Amino acid sequence: MPVTRPYYGRRFNLGGTFAADLDPNAQVKISADETFAQAAAANDHVVGHVLTKRDGNNKGVVELIRYEELLEDCVVTENVVAGEFAKRAADSGGEPRFAKFVPGTDAEERKLGIYFKGATTGNKAKILIP
After folding, report:
1. Which one has a higher pLDDT value, 120 or 12?
2. Nearest-angstrom CA–CA distance, 122 and 75
3. Band of the pLDDT at 3, cuts 50, 70, 90?
4. 67 with 129: CB under 8 angstroms?
5. What pTM was estimated for this model as a whole?
6. HSE-up (13 A, CA, CB side) for residue 71
7. CA distances from residue 45 to 21, 29, 30 in whole angstroms, order as listed
């Protein structure tokens, strides 16, 4: 029987490392830099589901359900970890900067997306945005 999935807009497929051997259609979260793991806990932030099982190099493809674009070369103003939510920070020299979104402190409308790849202060991260 085919799996029925909610439609969130344009579908976006993204390749990455799989932390384990996941079956097609398994729901996944971001667990480390450019890495997907099964979303099993009630509070896990599901980003998509498995399209192709991992290959011999632990690489596979995920169909994202909430995100439609990957921003690369995002300079961060603080250390950020993959799987944390992102927000815009104050621009520096006309260039956009990004920081981690803090639930309960930052207004919800400031949430930009989720880090697909973390970075240390002043370095470049990757952010998935809706």
Report:
1. 120
2. 6
3. very low
4. yes
5. 0.89
6. 20
7. 19, 6, 8
